[in-house]
Amino acid sequence: MTYFIDRRPNAKHKSAVNRQRFLERYRKHIKRSVEEAVNRRSITDMERGEKVSIPTKDISEPVFQHGPGGARNIVSPGNKEFLEGDKIRRPGGQGGGDGAGEGGASNQGEGDDEFAFTLSREEFLEFVFDGLELPNLQRKPLKSLEEIKMVRAGLARDGVPSRISITRSMREAYARRIAMRAPIKRALKEAQEALAAEERKDPVLRNPARIVELKAEIERLEKRIEAVPFIDTYDLRYHQLAAQPQPSSQAVMFCVMDVSGSMTQNHKDIAKRFFLLLYLFLEKHYEKVELVFVRHHTAAREVNEEEFFYSRETGGTIVSSALTLVNKIIEKRYPAGQWNLYIAQASDGDNWDDDSNICRDLLVKQLMPQLQYYAYVEITPHEHQSLWHEYETVAAQFPERFAMRQIVDAGDIYPVFRELFKRRLSQEQ
Fold first, then answer.
1. Residue 145's pLDDT is what?
2. Is 226 within the bounds of a domain?
3. Quick check: pTM over 0.85?
4. Which of 131, 165, 291, 342 is most buried, most CB within 10 Å of its CB?
């Protein structure tokens, strides 16, 4: 009989298996509650879970009931009102039962609250980023010998005990015992037949010395058979492992943010929240994605995570300075043949008059041929300026790898983010 043992760690008084089954069953309701929570809370407040409510009418369980017909004997102690055959009046109120379960007003009975429970941080983020992925992620050639996978490479007679092959070792031992016992068993059989033939002779013709000699030989051969070891060090076989190079799916995400004077504090807060959401998404779903943070006004500079999100630097606007810097970083540290390259840019659309054309040429001629995906969000409630129109030209040339969306207020961040990084049908197939 086969036994299945679930060794997943469970918290005290909780069942991880039942909880996962519950989350999957009511995934639609939970996801809707999570989306509402994302829109009302700060993105920086993603480090905690969320309390989710589900209407009681949506968690009702199917039940078995007795159908008409058949004989049933029911004892109802304390019944002073009804006799056999009486019809019981339906209770008043909504829902058919004291007004309970529907949440409607009633002058009698009790109501039921919505079923509420708390999602952990990991469960909350799982629903937040459900169905999202980096577009066009490809397998790249080997970067270095560190990208390897240990694979089985046959058997050997030497190895560590943890890699011993029990089946192959027992097979070798069995074959060795057969080979070593075979000639001894043949000699034993001949001696036993000779002894039986000698004992069948007439007592006058029987040779007692020969009988003693044959018995001694049989005893010696039996001891030799028993002396053959069940398993010997010669029989042991060990699995061998070899390092096999693997294609690398490593990626780098360039986060480019406009911090010029035209970006108001509200614009910068929205941009930071967008990039924080992107940061959490990459941190949760990908192990081999590096982040490069670039801030720019008239000049661009690569910064660390802390400075990217919290520095108060400001100035004029030349977007091409950031794109030029990103291109230099790619050439120096992230060659396109070894890395999947992604860029996410946030700006208010304001740019130096003659610079938007330069940005278009940089993208078309240098960056886009190397990139897997470019996501541009423009944070503005006003009409688009020259930068947006030039980017539309780029999007027309690279429709599968260049996406641009507009964000008016904080409520647009999450819907725009999901639209930019939603899973493509071609990748699902």
1. 36
2. yes
3. no
4. 342
